[in-house]
Amino acid sequence: DISGTFTLNNGVEMPYLGLGVYQSKNGQEVANAVYWALKMGYRHIDTAAIYRNEDGVGQGIKISNVPREDVFVVSKVWNSDQGYDSTLRAFEKSLERLQMDYLDLYLVHWPVAEKYKDTWRALEELYRQKNVRAIGVSNFLRHQLEDLMESAKIIPMVNQMEFHPHLVQQDLIDFCQKHQIQYEAWSPLMQGNIFDLREFHHLANTYNKSIAQIVLRYNLQKGIVTIPKSANRERIISNADVFDFELSKLDVDYLDSMDRNHRFGPDPENFEWSY
Ligand code: NAD
After folding, report:
1. Which of 72, 76, 129, 250 could form a disulfide with 109 if both were Cys (CB 3.0 to 4.6 A apart)?
2. Class of the 5-256 domain?
3. Which regions of the chain are under pLDDT 50?
């Protein structure tokens, strides 16, 4: 069910379905989205400093009356804040905006080449100080993970990547699994582009579920944490209605076979860092 979790390599339980809030407006819009999600059973919210809506996320959690310790709250250090000291400061500011005294998961948002190792040392320190229950990365390809792990004292607990049927990156999933790095999907709905594709309509009809539900269920059956974004109450509710059916192995393989290595977001290999 919606409160189900995957267990991270340090034993922390991470709810496998969360609410993404990228492009949800700070203030009422994001606070409402978080409130509705928590009211209907979500226990995991994915934000980032660069989304500029951490204040609203904090408000939404507060007004839901769900106890802080029952919600898995994730944020990320932005590229321009990378480096040891600046990451520690950025973390403090995120906590202030969220009005919290700890995070459940803090991620390195992108692998800024000359800096991500110093950034990681700061996350290790935050983890040791128990300011955060788990630490991880986002948008790290295999060579970047290998490079980081060479000097890391703590293996990342999570790698949050763009993932959907047109960008599977199975090699990276396998690598992460081998190292007990939990794989997590961003843009699981292809930023909304999934709804235009004919092959998904067919699957939706077969299972009598929505296209979003088919694709999110596919994430979970592959053992991947997923965080669909919506600020619309009905969609927030229906995106979590994925626990009353199961895709056949054949259909999971079919969705995998749609892979065309196509990104809707930036390429971690050559993302422009400077904004
Ligand atoms: P998504 O794939 O979740 O798609 C969101 C879009 O689909 C929105 O336009 C929404 O209105 C629409 N939508 C959602 N549910 C729908 C439904 N049931 N029916 C019809 N339309 C629906 O895209 P995303 O927001 O890019 O990704 C999800 C989350 O992942 C983000 O909110 C953010 O938290 C995270 N993310 C992380 C990174 C990163 O670099 N780590 C990058 C992008 C996003």
Report:
1. 76
2. alpha beta
3. 275
